[in-house]
Amino acid sequence: MEGVDASASEGLEPAVERLKENLSALDVLVADRLEAAERKRRIISDLSKTNTAVQRALAPGIMVMDAKFSQLNKAVKDTKLNTEERLAVIDELAALISTALPLQKARFEASAINDMLLRAASAETHADLEELAFPLRRSQKSFGGILRQMAPSMSERISPRAEELGEIIAGPDSLTDVRANELDLIASSEDLITKNTVLSRQLTALVDDLLARAKEDIATGNLEATSVQRFSTGILIAVVALSLISSALIVWLYVGRNLIARLTALSDSMLAIAAGNLRAPLPTTSGGDEISRMAEALVVFRDTAIEVEETNLRDIDAARRRLVDAIENSSEGFAFYAPNDQLVICNSRYKELLYPNSDIAIEPGMAFEAIIRSAAEGGHIVDAQGRIDEWVAERLAFHRNPGEPRLQHRKSGQWILVTERKTGDGGTVAIYSDITDLKQRETELTTKSNALEQLSNQLAKYLSPQIYDSIFSGRQEVKLTSQRKRLTVFFSDLVGFTETTEQLESEDLTRLLNQYLTEMSQIAIAHGATIDKYIGDAIVIFFGDPETLGVKEDAVACVKMAIAMRKRMQELERLWKDSGLEKPLRCRMGINTGLCTVGNFGSDDRMDYTIIGGGVNLAARLESACAPDEILISYETYAHVNDLIHCEERDKLSVKGIAQPVTTYQVVDLRENLGTVGRPIRARLPHFQLDADVTRMSVDEQREALAVLLDSAERLSSFGTKA
Asked: Are residues 576 and 669 in the same domain?
């Protein structure tokens, strides 16, 4: 026996040592786990403070926005507002929504970040942490983008909190890293616990073996004590039996007949009161024991409940009377229908709007269909005339599935706005508003607007489209003001127009001039020009105000317009000649780019939008010095268009007010339109000049020009041979 015990002890000691080592290592892991838990607690505390700070920073702005939104929403529904005031309120409401939206988004993203971080703090596995990492980064990026949309003052207040959130999300001591470390510690602890469990089982087996041997020794001693134990057990059973019989007698005599009866009565009274029967009989409160005091407390509770019930009934009755008075005194028609479409309550205004000048009675319990059918059959609804059944069906469908408010036109001329909304229990609230005055004002406003539109369309014929648009859109004020701008100015007139007027009747002359001005104006408007004025047969046009594409682009557009006008004039010359006009009208044009004064000139009563200055005078001088059917431009215009338009230098022009002669250029055509065949033939030498536009020559003119050139070439050749 002693040998067996010694071998068991030798196997027990190494297992105990390994268990001690594992427990020591587990103590270290537990300490690390507690430290990690403390770090996590601090980070969660910081997260709570940061989130609270963000919410507090956003809350005032959101509350102010909500209050303003409520005020603007009420203002939108105010029927006393005219159209301009309503549009202003709607614009303000739209601006408010655009301001409030970033605050709401920021609040949502901050809450989302807080929730995801809290979920990360309690994540069960590393996979759960990795699953939360992407939405955390996305919400953090979205939160930063929302900050840039906010007002600078609000963004400055929240930016430090956003940085704190960034540290908690992805900083060196982030919440996710702390939780990942904590999960690693838990895994290590669980591994040690598993090893300790195996060692514990081994130790248990060894100890069980020792106990089995010990039990064999104990069994021998137990046999000796068994006889003594049997005698003692018999005595103990007799004592216990006598005690149980005595207790049963006491319980039956006192508890069964007295306490249980009183407790049963008290319980029945409490159940009755709990069921709502405050008038149920209560047990007597005589005596000073605990049951009596419980009965007294129940009496006090019952009396208090009765008093509260009576007070609530009085308050409900008063509230109902106030509600009925408020509904009755409302300027709008009000009605409430139960889920089965039976009338519950309505005010007198509802009856007046539904049945004007009628004695038809409306009582609670009446069906909605019967009420509206009576109105339709009485001829009060214009839309229902001749189609009562169809209208009633439409009205019932709208009543059961209400949407946007609807207008009803009444026979008396009234316009009623019907607004219906469903309640939570399926009932329907109906509001009838008389908007007849508003509709009349709307009709008057529409009539006046149409009249103003017709008038403005007539006035538009006296103004350039750009000037008309800038004035009527509010971009330009109608007052005496001007400014210096770099413009491209165009002048044109008809050569020989005075002689032509002497040959034509006034009607033919008017038709001819109007045709010319109409054709030229259409080309000018198509190129974005501002038509300044017509002076007889002359046209003054400028580019660069009130709208501009840039100085270079304005100059190019002006010269392209002039080329198009010249081309159209060639077509008109043939038409006029075919119609019998012996000497068709020919046009000349001058263009200059330079500083001008542009604006409104005149008096407060009458003014003219025009241009003045040296740049305008130079354009006029270029036009007067230009040859018929040609376009003469200044050097500054040439500098802007030379890369796109082929021009040829002409004589310098002396202009009053300018010290040096002005270099001029004659416009040939767009470079993209010039080919080797159609390009004009021009040459200029000290003793030789050639200017031939083949495309504009007739066949006879081309033959004569060819003969002149051949003769000139032959003579030049003979002079060269002699030399």
From this structure: yes
